[in-house]
Amino acid sequence: MKELIIQEILGEREKQDQKWGEQNHKPMEWVAILGEEVGEVNKAALEAYFRYKGKEDYSEYRKELVQVAAVALAMIECFDRNNES
Q: What is the mean pLDDT of residues 24-50?
């Protein structure tokens, strides 16, 4: 199961790179980007719970979690790329 999730995250990273190219933000910029993505996770969870009480659909929540993981991975890639010795 973990391997499938990791492949999904890597696929999302590919989409991000195709859309925006290599990103080399400063840590404070990355924190803002990650925070926005976490906000999307919060929104998706709240909407699923309150809109569909009893029949919650958390598919959007999961999709946003994959995006959060992909952004976190991009942050690490950027950090390592720009801090090589």
A: 96
